[in-house]
Amino acid sequence: MGKKSVPFEEKIRMFMRSQRMYWPGARILSGISGGKDSLMLAVVLKHVSEVDDVSVELLHLNFGQKGSELLEKHVERFASELGLPLKVWRLEDEWGMRFDELVSRLRGNPCAICSTLLRYYLLYLGRDYDAVATGHNLDDVVSFYLYNAMTGNVSFSSTLRPVLKTSVGPLKIRPFFYVREEKIAEEAKKRGIVSFPTGCPSEEEAPTVLLRRFLKDFERRVPGARKNLLRFFLEKTEPPKEPPNRCEICGMPTSGRICAVCKMKKRLGII
Ligand SMILES: [Zn+2]
Question: What's the rounded Cα separation, in Å, for the pair 246 and 259?
Fold first, then answer.
């Protein structure tokens, strides 16, 4: 008798349960960018909602980058075929401008601004849910830890855990925390799921992307290297501390008086 193979969705569901990512009656909001990780996460969460007493909704953040209208349509179709409710939030509706204009007016680093906005709005729009989920996989997590270590900011990684409590309310959960990128790609392929072009121009040259490529090559010689490296970082990194304050404007957690997003809005004269 061969080893009985447990379907991917079920394996992740069991992992989520073991990590207490949800409980009976919980409401989960999951980010859906259109990349294969977030699409596969939606598939997994659909399964979870069929087996357990939880409800799942998807959230697509549209920053108005090139191709974003088409991307939004792809995501809408995907969600409706899967049978999960989708919320769409558009930067232009709230800020009165698209991402490129915002970046050029702030003269900021687009990757830093994008990741700040993504993190902020997922939590802000998910504040009435029990958990907000993202599709970060093992490769994302390890490359981020390594990047922060190499740039002398390893403490920035402390919030990267499979489950993180937030002072706003919902848990931040990462069901694919220990799943290799290749595994997700393989499972996506089996189901005929392909990433929609997300229109991110920095995808090729971002430092964490280079590290990801390096780690994957390295693991061909040293199996298990990524998981071992992650284990090392998790052991060596201090557990995350909650930002001590609430933003005076929006009420979100911040280490200063005003959060990074409200600061941007102020500089742009929106608030
Ligand atoms: Zn704020």
Answer: 8
